[in-house]
Amino acid sequence: MRNTWMALGAAGAVAAMMAGCATGKATPPPPAPVALASVSEKPGQVVEEQVVSVAATVVKVDQKARVVTLRKADGEVVDVQVGDEVKNLPQVKKGDQVVATYYESIALTLRKPGEAKPGIETADAAGRAKPGEKPAGLAARQTTVTATVVGLNKKQGTITLKGPRGKTVTVTARDPKRLEPVKVGDLIEAVYTEAIAISVEKSAKQ
After folding, report:
1. Which candidate among 10, 105, 130, 202 keeps its CA 20 to 30 Å from the CA of 120?
2. Does the pLDDT at position 154 exceed 70?
3. Which residues have C-beta within 8 Å of that of residue 64, sequence separation ≥ 6?
């Protein structure tokens, strides 16, 4: 899974949590990561999605230094720096559960000449908890790239695309049958979406 999530305070913290950088003793670890993946297909379009949820237990909070010590599911303890974007750090307590849910998808759509133009667009979105609420954050990015088909080898299952900036790349289709309706001069629209939602939940003891 690509690690290209935006640094939205807590998002950066969770990214550091995933990388790991310290050890220590703490309470029992939270549940292991949960991953779900799916592929849906219809004529002219393929959508692949993946969702991964990761939980960690808060072991210690240094409000002054804005450092939170977390225990991951594998038992590893890490210290992470929480950015100033997270306004509700005082609400984080020992025993809380930090839950991060990653979403990633790519949708490939076949466009005929005149239906679209080569290009690239990126849109970002972000949000966070209101003052007084448990800390939460959301960062999302959607990138749309439309490229022109300049070469095909249906026997080998390869397609050559020319991007909006003039560069070409040849890729192999996972399923060669998907190339059957494609012709040179068509366009392939790829919409890549990535998002991370972060929340701090009260533990069962609280």
Report:
1. 10
2. yes
3. none
